[in-house]
């Protein structure tokens, strides 16, 4: 058997799997943005004040009551 140097053993590299970091990062970022928007919506909904319910009838102060009773005498 003679050593034939013209034919080198062929070593085939296994194909590398593509990194999924980009897709995972986009999924995490999208989930975070969706969560922030949802929580902001819940916060706004729970703290929203109805303008008609927020109006109050002004209370009569004690000094006004005393001045009216003195004026009636």
Characterize the structure shown:
With 73 residues, the protein is an all-alpha fold. Helices cover 58% and strands 0% of the residues. The mean pLDDT is 76. The chain has 3 helices and no strands.
The profile of the biggest β sheet is: none
Query: What would you call the structural class?
Result: mainly alpha
* Helix/strand order, N-terminal first: HHH
Instruction: Kindly estimate the percentage of residues that lie in beta strands according to DSSP.
Output: under 5%
Q: N-to-C terminal Cα separation, in Å?
A: 137 Å
Helix count, DSSP H or I runs of 4 or more residues? 3
Helical proportion, percent range = 55-70%
Quaternary status? single chain
Put the structure in a nutshell.
This protein is mainly α and about 70 residues long.
Defining key terms:
mainly alpha, rod-shaped, 73 residues, 3 helices, single chain
Chart the SSEs and their pairings.
Elements: H1 21-47, H2 51-54, H3 62-72
């Amino acid at each position: 058997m003679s050593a034939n140097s013209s034919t080198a053993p062929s070593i085939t590299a296994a194909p590398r799997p593509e990194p999924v970091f980009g897709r995972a990062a986009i999924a995490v970022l999208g989930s975070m943005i969706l969560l922030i928007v949802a929580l902001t919506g819940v916060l706004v909904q729970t703290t929203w004040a109805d303008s008609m319910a927020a109006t109050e009838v002004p209370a009569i102060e004690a000094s006004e009551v005393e001045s009216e009773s003195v004026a009636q005498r």
